[in-house]
Amino acid sequence: MTRRTGLPRIAIVGGGIGGLAAAAFLRREGFDSTVYEQASRLGEVGAGLVVAPNAARQLRKLGVLDALRERAVQLDTGWEFRRWQDGTVLSAENLADACERRYGEQTYTAHRADLLRVIEALVPPENIVLGHKCVAVEPGARPRLRFADRQAVEADVVIGADGVHSVVRGALFGATPATYSGLCAFRALVPAEEAPGFARRPAQTLWIGPGHHLVHYPVSSGEQVNLVAFAPAGDYTMESWTATATVEEFLAEFAEWDGRLVDLIRAGGTPGRWALLDRAPLSHWSEGGTTLLGDAAHPMFPFFAQNDPLVANGWIYDYDPDVALGRPALA
């Protein structure tokens, strides 16, 4: 990688959507950066996400919105609330008209991998270093990163985009213990041909009932339906995006709900499952030449959505309108 003399050396820890978006926006402004990712190849654990108009504007600035739209689904309807017993529609928003009129952009749903791919294309391959797990950070005027293979790198600026278990956050502010919420989340992808018609529509639908709720919407050009559901966790406390449950465990949480929804869950195959753990907010996110982005800075529950303009879970948000996108999670 060639660096122009006089520019700061910028290291980004984490090659997810937030880290790559930060690298893409920095490059747009004339700054090179190097992204260090622990995985041996780029990929995004998870399934679907909603790209709201504020995110669409940022993707348009990067010049990749049209590329994402090739695989994304433009929503006609959003916040369609349905009653758990019988699927009665309680309320719904006409997004197709309202979003364009109010915000000048539409709302889309997409598979995480599709969003990651279009952003990755903006970052030169030589600026992405795979197989580098950051295990320690020495903050200071020139922070030093240490990796599991004992390599070390110095930089003028370090951006910690390394998620909810951020090593960079720990180096800056010490351990931030999690608080058990008593809730867990399930997720699954259903092939469109196995999903009922109401789930294949370009709509974001939320089924609500006692102590539970479930969201579904189409992704991948309508080829799949993304499900994510929230339920009491009992004694389940594993906070991992790669952990799984059984279909029976997922079904048990919604056994008395509308039979069409039960059929949709059954068609999803082995679901993911993770506990929702909370962490106290930080008073600030930067120390010297080191700062945090996305879940590393402000982890929040997926269903908080855009209640906070800096939230990263569930939707994509403007971390800084001219610098970076926040990191999504599921919703």
Please explain how this structure is put together.
The chain is of the alpha+beta class and 331 residues long. It has nine helices and 21 strands. Strands 6-5-14-15-16-13-17 form a seven-stranded mixed beta sheet. A six-stranded mixed beta sheet has the order 8-2-1-12-19-18, sandwiched between helices. Strands 3-7-4 form a three-stranded antiparallel beta sheet. It is globular. The two termini are 37 Å apart.
In terms of topology, how is this protein built?
Layout: E1 10-13, H1 17-28, E2 34-36, E3 48-51, H2 53-62, H3 65-69, E4 73-74, E5 77-83, E6 89-94, H4 95-103, E7 108-111, H5 112-120, E8 128-129, E9 134-138, E10 144-147, E11 152-154, E12 157-160, H6 167-173, E13 179-191, H7 197-200, E14 203-209, E15 212-219, E16 224-232, H8 247-253, H9 259-266, E17 272-278, E18 286-287, E19 290-292, E20 318-320, E21 324-325
Parallel strand pairs: 1-2, 1-12, 2-8, 5-14, 12-19
Antiparallel strand pairs: 3-7, 4-7, 5-6, 9-10, 10-11, 13-16, 13-17, 14-15, 15-16, 18-19, 20-21
Helix pairs in contact: 1-5
**Oligomeric form:** single chain
The average pLDDT value, as a whole number, equals: 87
Helix content class: 10-25%
Q: H/E element string?
A: EHEEHHEEEHEHEEEEEHEHEEEHHEEEEE
Count, helices: 9
Radius of gyration: 20 Å
Strand order of the largest sheet: 6-5-14-15-16-13-17
Structural class: alpha+beta
End-to-end gap: 37 Å
How many beta-strand elements?
A: 21
Tertiary shape: globular
What kind of sheet is the major sheet?
7 strands, mixed
What proportion of the residues form beta strands (DSSP E)?
25-35%
Low-confidence stretches are: 307-331
